[in-house]
Amino acid sequence: MIERLNQIGEREILNRLKKFMVKGQIEDDTAQLTLTNPNILINTDIFVENVHFSDSTMSPQDIGWKTVAANISDLAGSGVDHIFGITVGIATPAKTSWSWLEKVYQGINDALNHFGGQLLGGDLSRSNQTVLSITAIGSVGKLRLHRSYAKNGDIIVTSGPHGLSRLGLALLTNNPNINSDNLSKSLKIQAIKAHQRPQTGLAALTTLKNCKPSLTPWRAAGTDSSDGLLNALQSICESSYCQAILDPNQLPKANSWPLGLPWEKWCMNGGEDFELILSLPSEWAQSFVATFPLSKIIGSIQKGDPKLMWTNGEEISLSTFSEFEHF
After folding, report:
1. Beta partners for 122?
2. The overall pTM is greater than 0.85
3. Domains in the chain, ordered, with CATH?
4. Among 67, 75, 123, 308, fewest CB within 10 Å belongs to which?
5. Could you report the average pLDDT of every consecutive run of 10 residues in the chain (327 residues)?
């Protein structure tokens, strides 16, 4: 028999969820952290059923994992040095099964064990639609990545390929606009994994810190590409008041990525790639791409009104590659 949340009640639900937290963590309305670094990073993301996730394309464990990964990706895009943990707010219909909720928390727990941090607590409420709100807390060390730190002459680097999550969604929903028979098996597996169990820029961030040339200052611009590659670059240009010059022959595509405008759209602005987009001094950029195998130089930064340009001088129209939008 399926146990529904309205049959269990809030107190018993919380008692069952204690196994995902350290002892005593939710015996109070607040969580106490012992902090040694005063430079704290905090971010919050909201995940809405049938907008950001669906039971038709993801298991409950995948949903839990992905909500954590998205938040950790934001911390990585700011240069996080240590992850303290997350809080989880869930609003869901009363008829939701306990098994579904438990599996979501199992996915959350698996992601925290993989990326770092602990479950600090949260809240649970009834709603007509399932919504998860995650707040992640970390600290920053020597390298504070910020969108406003780009400078003229910087090299633009990505930590990995783009468009895979969007392709994964298309495969999982049997999108009629693609012929999956023409795609390699390895690309399809990679894409579905990128959508359901994404990684973050943490490994790239560690490499970036370790490979910095000794005479290069700790100055780098960066963000993550959860909202798409072009959106990430545009945000850097607007914050740093500069232009990004992209090489059309060096786009961050996965191996055996098909040709054509629809595929370029997914690469440029498919969303949910969770890679680092960096604007680095030239020596640091060269060191990074020589050290981190998936990384790639895709362009450079120059002075000028905030805009994206191709190397031939043509302005890149965001509307041409429009894919992901919050609204």
Report:
1. 88
2. yes
3. 5-29+36-140 (3.30.1330.10), 147-321 (3.90.650.10)
4. 123
5. 79 75 66 79 94 94 97 97 95 95 97 96 93 96 95 98 96 91 95 97 98 97 96 96 97 94 90 96 98 97 97 87 54
